[in-house]
Amino acid sequence: MTTSKKVAVVTGASRGIGRALVQSFVKEGYEVWALARAADALEQLARESNGAVRPLAIDVADEAAVIAASRRILEAGAPRVLVNNAGITVSAPINKTSTEDYHRVMAVNVTAPFLFCRELLPAMAAAGGGRIINIGSIAATRGVKYTSAYCASKHALLGLTRSLAAEWARKNVTVNIVNPGWTETDMLSNAKAAISKTTGRSEQEAHAALANMHAMGRVIQPEEVAALCLFLASDAAASISGSAYNIDGGGEAG
């Protein structure tokens, strides 16, 4: 890639995987646009980064806000990397999943990445190339009960990834997806709380149950996901596009 300044855009940047992504890219010398709803957390990230982080408070479910944020980013120059990390889930059987919940999951998990790619990708290509990294889930490749909206959204994100990879293959833009298993994030905490409430098990027991769904018997750390993304953003990954990387502790436990 020929762009002179390393700039990354990370959505869902205020916590969990997003926060680890921002910190990891900063350590690699990037300037990072950090996008999330939590303005205070973004400002804290900016203070910790000694000016390398540009906080931008935004609800990515708002199409107009995504377009406005993209234009603001482009005013400062085309980014080299876009990580579509923001994601939400709804845990309920389909007959208890409201249409409103379904639409919000799709808006955050699929429509926002589509919009950011549509708005930023052409400028990245014109500037010499770039990297699009979508944060999916193991739910992008298999069905998981009680999360039909979430699974549908992550399957759609996988399809978007593969389509854009083919579409921009001759423009020095790679598009890949990283699919974490259970990771030490708020989503894991919420799942543990739900298990405890439903089954009466302690949160420690719930944590062990979720960890044991991975063959390695442990959950993934956000920094491990960030490290994989840094590789996909590097020159060493210039020929990798349209790929899905599972980071799931060896897959399902046998």
Would you summarize the structure shown here?
With 254 residues, the chain is an alpha/beta fold.
Q: How would you describe the overall organization of this protein?
A:
Belongs to the short-chain dehydrogenases/reductases (SDR) family. Strands 3-2-1-4-5-6-7 form a 7-stranded parallel β-sheet, sandwiched between helices. It is α/β, with parallel strands linked by helices and 254 residues long. The protein is globular and about 55 Å long. It is 46% helix and 15% strand.
Give the helices and strands, then pairings:
Blueprint: E1 7-11, H1 16-27, E2 31-36, H2 39-48, E3 53-57, H3 63-75, E4 81-84, H4 99-126, E5 130-135, H5 148-167, E6 173-180, H6 186-199, H7 203-211, H8 222-233, E7 244-247
Parallel strand pairs: 1-2, 1-4, 2-3, 4-5, 5-6, 6-7
For the record, the CATH class of the largest domain is: Alpha Beta
Helix content: 40-55%
DSSP summary, beta strand count: 7
Radius of gyration: 18 Å
Strand content: 5-15%
Provide the CATH topology of the largest domain.
Rossmann fold
Overall pLDDT confidence: 92
Largest sheet: 7 strands, parallel
CATH architecture of the largest domain: 3-Layer(aba) Sandwich
Order of helices and strands: EHEHEHEHEHEHHHE
Provide the spatial order of strands within the biggest beta sheet: 3-2-1-4-5-6-7
Question: How many distinct folded domains?
Answer: 2
Distance between the termini: 42 Å
Low-confidence stretches: none
Pfam family, one: adh_short
Protein name: Oxidoreductase
Family: Belongs to the short-chain dehydrogenases/reductases (SDR) family.
Organism: Cystobacter ferrugineus
